[in-house]
Amino acid sequence: MQKDREQERLVEYRKILRKNHTVYEQVQNCHTETLLDSRIESVLGPALNSFVLWVLKEAERKQIKRLYFLARDGYFMYRCALLYCRRWDLPIECRYLSCSRYSIRIPIFHMNMEDALDYICRGGIDVTLDKILNRGGLNEKEKERVLQEAFRNRSAREIIPYAELSAVRERLKSCVFFMECVYERSCKAYPSLKGYLQQEGLLDKGKSALVDSGWVGSMQKTLNMVLENLGRKERLTGYYWGLYELPADVQRNDYFCYYFSPEKGLREKVFFSNCLFETLFSAPHGMAMGYEKIEKGYVPCYAEILPDRKEFMEKLEKGLLKFAESTIEQIKNIEEIDCKEYRKAVMQILKLFMGKPTRAESELFGGLEFSDDVLDDERQQVAAKMSEKELRGNHVWNKALVMLGIRKAYVKESAWYEGSVARHGKSERYHLVMYRLYKYLLYMRKNYYYRRLRR
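The structure assignment produced for this chain is given below.
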């Protein structure tokens, strides 16, 4: 029964793709041995490559000479873009920028400690004091002292409700030791960041742009601020898979969106999982933790990556590059690509894959580990296994009341709720409808807020 459903789903994906001439032959002739192979060829390959081709066409049209693909979400994008640029002789230089929120933020905290506090005390899945103090770059001894001085030995592992994060921020602001630790560590890390950015050509003249998955676009604002201090005249623009919102005080026309934007793409957002996207489109190396000066320049310092995770990413990389090579063989030049039609096909595919996954899809991809925090220390399965009660806790009315602080209750969250529903296997339609209603209300509210703010 389950095997039949998987085959039916594959047929659905291929039917959608056959409507788009740029991928028709690839899907028509593919021979898949595993579920991962079939989803690379029918879902992940088309999704990633459609975005990369759009970026390259837009960059060429705007005469952007250099693209910086941000680690780690940009790794596969970078690898595919190199193939296209070399084979089609595109006048675009592609570079991979090894950075992370942690490696860029820590060195600049000292420039604006109020902004630093906002970032350190931001929300997330199951936020704890330990996670918050890690965001500030504190070591274990320093964390213990801050807990004693500011939180009266409150458990570092206790989950903090979203409504209480502002109070945590005020306590940290009043803790002199914490503020000194963050400031001193930031000042110490700044010279190496400066050296690395200069080495990678970010102070060179000419049009350059960033390429990343997106979501908020804060990295672009942060990098522009650092580079301006270092003497760069031109602002970096950015190409993103999607943006839910934008940082304050940025120019809207510096941010280009493919799949959805702060103003548009309500349905796309509802049937999309940014956490699953990050889990799948990552790099076979650990997170950039900072930069080290060596004899020949500066190199990024990476955190360790688990062997199983590395092996999976390498398999995925091999399949995605094979898909890109197949596209190159069939398309003579980039002008033949109809990005609008390709995007429509990808939207229909992702609506099924992310918004209503099969049991086998949810087990394979939902079982992968994910961390939504600045550091990767505390990982969980992207589609957490949840009970009926836990699934109901994420329904629209309960979740809204808890987030507003009206109802005191713990809501166990899943980074890919739809995958958790599929793994549970019961009352699927009911849970999905209630969660989609929550997402519709959430993104309608955000869209309204954004448009009102931008008037």
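Interim note for the steering committee: The CA atoms of residues 286 and 306 lie 8 Å apart. The first strand starts at residue 66 and ends at 70.
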